[in-house]
Design brief:
CATH architecture of the largest domain: 2-Layer Sandwich
Oligomer: single chain
Strand order of the largest sheet: 3-2-1-6-11
Helix content: 25-40%
Number of strands: 15
Strand content: 25-35%
CATH topology of the largest domain: Nucleotidyltransferase, domain 5
Shape: globular
Mean pLDDT: 88
Length: 372
């Protein structure tokens, strides 16, 4: 395998999606292959069967390599959602005298902010500085500036320590070098919004199998996050239980292209729409106007009338559309997160690019880096 090949691994509750990419010395990105497999061993964000999840990930790896001579050795994965939490806190330090602020002072602030809320069972997966203040004055970057008091406001994404350790163990069992584990929406937005949009303010709603995630980005950073325990499986179980029908039949009732044969089915779906939209609206509370600045992704967007219901409740005339450049290159929009993992890895400098003399029979995704 060339040194600059990296795979993005999106571990969803329904499917595992994998995109194998190569990055050359000019930071041009080549998509070498994509693959997916049915998720097993994962239940509501918790790894309940390590062997089953290992086998499911291995299946996706083998499919990606089947028609490609590159072996997958390096990977960036999404974060397990079990016990995932969000918090915004400040860290503060007072120096003995006015002096030049350096990175060690910033790190000390971040550590103090983290220690306020960290417990033995969870760990900070992401520490995201939102703003800095020196002597109470807002600054873009405190390093190199003089002051006596430094404060850093941070948004934290926490995850279960044991789940992260189990996932790391699985990936190492598969002889993979782990270049990073990233909260999914932080990766997804790299393929959906450009830098200006993320700086000005952008929202992302991802409706999955068991959960829906709501994220708001400002100044390029996640500043609000929420996980709602409602997904497509919630709708399916509602219909199956109340109407006393098989879950396979309930799936048909949810289709945008089919009309439920019973008025009660429509009432059940609309009731869950109302609950979900209420949670999403609350998660976006205090955010800037969302019209045309919010993207709606995930398998749940296909649920009957959900898109129009959310648009009405959130006061959105038009949802932000996924760039056509991506849709024309990827085999499906379900791979936006797995590709986003690689792009996030590049922007975070946890990936290196190396020159490769191999001729790629794939489309070069130079647009990605021009876009960002």
């Amino acid at each position: 395998m060339a040194l600059n090949c990296i795979a993005g691994l999106d571990i969803g509750h329904k499917e595992i999606k994998l995109t194998l990419c190569e990055v050359d010395e000019n930071h041009d990105v080549n998509v070498l292959s994509t693959s997916s497999s049915i998720t097993s061993g994962l239940e509501k964000g918790k790894i309940v069967d390590k062997d089953a999840l290992t086998a499911a990930i291995k299946s996706a790896l083998m499919r990606a390599q089947k028609n490609n001579k590159f072996a997958i050795k390096s990977i960036i994965s999404t974060l397990p959602l079990f016990m995932a939490k969000f918090s915004t806190n400040s860290g503060f330090i007072h120096l003995n005298e006015t002096q030049e602020i350096d990175q060690s002072h910033v790190d000390s602030c971040l550590k103090r902010a983290k220690n306020i809320i960290q417990t033995p069972n969870i760990m900070a997966a992401h520490i995201l500085p939102i703003e800095y203040r020196i002597n109470g004055e807002l600054v873009d970057n405190p390093v190199g500036k003089k002051g006596q008091n430094l404060e850093v406001l941070c948004h934290f994404v926490f995850s279960s320590k044991s789940e992260l350790q189990t996932l790391m163990s699985i990936l190492k069992t598969l002889n993979l070098t782990v270049n990073g584990i990233i909260y999914g929406p932080i990766a997804s937005v790299k393929t959906i919004f450009n830098t200006n949009e993320l700086n000005e303010g952008a929202g992302l709603v991802d409706i999955g199998k068991h959960f829906s995630t709501v994220s708001y980005f400002k100044k390029g950073v996640l500043i609000q996050g929420s996980i709602i325990p409602i997904g497509t499986e919630t709708y399916i179980k509602d219909l199956s239980l109340i109407l006393k029908i098989p879950e396979s039949k309930a799936v048909d009732y949810l289709s945008e292209n089919k009309t439920p044969p019973l008025p009660l089915a429509t009432d059940i779906i609309n009731a869950r729409h109302a609950e979900l939209s209420s949670f999403i609206k609350k998660a976006f509370n205090g955010c800037a106007p969302l019209d045309a600045k919010t993207a709606l992704i995930g398998g749940g967007v296909q649920i009957k009338n959900l898109r129009s219901h959310l648009a009405k409740k959130l006061d959105i005339t038009t949802f932000h559309q996924m760039p056509p450049n991506i849709l024309s290159i990827l085999p499906s929009d379900k791979y936006v997160t797995s590709v986003g993992l690689v792009l996030k890895g590049l922007s975070s400098h946890c990936l290196e690019s190396h020159h490769s003399e191999t001729t790629m029979k794939t489309k070069i995704l130079k647009w990605f880096l021009d876009f960002f």
